[in-house]
Predict the structure.
Amino acid sequence: MERRSYKAAQALLDLPDYRIYVASAAGQKIAGFIAEWQLDGLLFLEHLAVQPALRGSGIGSNMVKRYLDHVDRPVVLEVEEPNSRLAARRIHFYQKLGFKLSDYGYVQPNMQPVNEEPVALKIMHYPDGMTEKEFLQFKKLVSERVYQPKKTGKNG
């Protein structure tokens, strides 16, 4: 999946719609984190990351379960097309947590100055499926506010 540059990722912290939730575990300062965008009427779970040494221990599942217990609107996330074993495992991980894999998707815009291979993504939605109208609205919001964010925070 595409990643932002360090500078671009750091700039997100000034945006009012972007939040990071951090989890800790015994012996670890940071066990993992969830990054979300608060978009109109939904939450976009952009990242779930767990320390490599802790993967497979249930921390990621517990983080997502706790996150979902506190959300007040639908949650949407992107996954790579299930063309590899790893991508299929990620989809299954989210399905076990109640996410639905939709038929909708798009190619992720390039976030780095160098051209890289385009990444085809599918959309997953929680707690229910997604209509075409909801998908088109999400795609518009994510394009305008996530992939091309305008600096509107305290320093912008």
